[in-house]
């Protein structure tokens, strides 16, 4: 007989941000077994009676565990199997989200930890693998899209945006070609009259995403 | 209380092939309700007691419903929600697979139908949406990878491979630049002494994937 089997259905969220010029992930202390009190990705069961779909579940869980509604949330990949959860056969529909670090730090949730993606301990379940998939996706999309802009906050200077792209890509970029690519993307606009003091340098012009690109990625025909 | 809810957990497979120079999808007649006797994507419940993970389930379901083990199988996206299945809240982990048309046609399963992706009727569930996502993925990956080669069978001429790329991309390609890109990809090797008669033209050299690329995509730095 082909009948449904009891399968644990969850959502996990890889919430990424830039801290000290490094790509970091947000971990949340688990409040129940398995792995009680250990740090892991924010996640939880799908609630069939209240979530319309998994995206809805991801938004609910993020709000509950971090207090945030991040500007960018995308389905990453689904992790499944008999071996990944000690409770039994499970599905985790994983999402990744990008957020300005200031939002996380000001939300001041004591249960949250920010950890660089290249300095993670062994995490519960297959969460290291999920994070690695998210970092791959970010790295790939940063080559040819405006994705890293979602890590930059409301307004930012071009030097700061370049540092964010570099943290996502894991490599240094040439300033002149980076600026040419940003021009080509065409998603940024200068904030009139707003500059940032930059130490010994002259103040840097501040930029923001044009309103039409706040919820929509823009792609380059040729990558960075 | 945060306890798991009963959620229908399934796998669906978008099995793509080229027929008459068009990108087509394989539909399978449903043998039970809902939508009994209607054509839909091959799919089925995850069997927690026998499938190690969803990929395993996809391979099992493809074998059962089509008799095939396709050369390329990739997780596409997960489709979820309260509205997509009349039986209740459901998760479908969707995969796409690429196969040489001759394999499908010779498997001669009378329950299977081959339909061009741009000439589909309204299908059960959200299967039109799943197929559209697969076509998008193929179109995108065909721009910069060896993916369409998996649709070409064991051996093929370059004119035939170009037709396959064109069917995937939905646009005509320039012969000279197509061949330069194939050289750059470096995944093909000529089959010694094997040619294909080509009407009034001189016989075309036959090619195959180098063995190291039979199970591994190769990417172009710059797209087609």
Give a brief rundown of this model.
Two copies of one chain form a homodimer. Chain A has about 220 residues and is an alpha+beta fold.
What order do the helices and strands come in, and which of them pair?
The structure is a homodimer of 224-residue chains.
Chain A: E1 8-19, E2 22-29, E3 39-40, E4 43-45, H1 54-66, E5 72-81, E6 90-98, H2 101-107, E7 112-116, H3 127-142, E8 156-157, H4 158-169, H5 175-185, E9 188-198, E10 201-209
Keywords (chains A, B): Hydrolase
Domain Nudix hydrolase (chains A, B): 11-127
InterPro entries (chains A, B): NUDIX_hydrolase-like_dom_sf (IPR015797), NUDIX_hydrolase_dom (IPR000086), WH-like_DNA-bd_sf (IPR036388), WH_DNA-bd_sf (IPR036390), WHD_NrtR (IPR054105)
Oligomer: homodimer
Number of strands of chain A: 10
In the CATH scheme, the class of the largest domain in chain A would be: Alpha Beta
Spans where pLDDT lies below 50 across 5 or more residues of chain A = none
Count of helices of chain A? 5
Shape of chain A: elongated
Largest interface: A-B, 32 and 33 residues
Look at the structure and give the mean pLDDT of chain A: 91
Number of domains of chain A: 2
What composes the largest sheet of chain A?
Answer: 7 strands, mixed
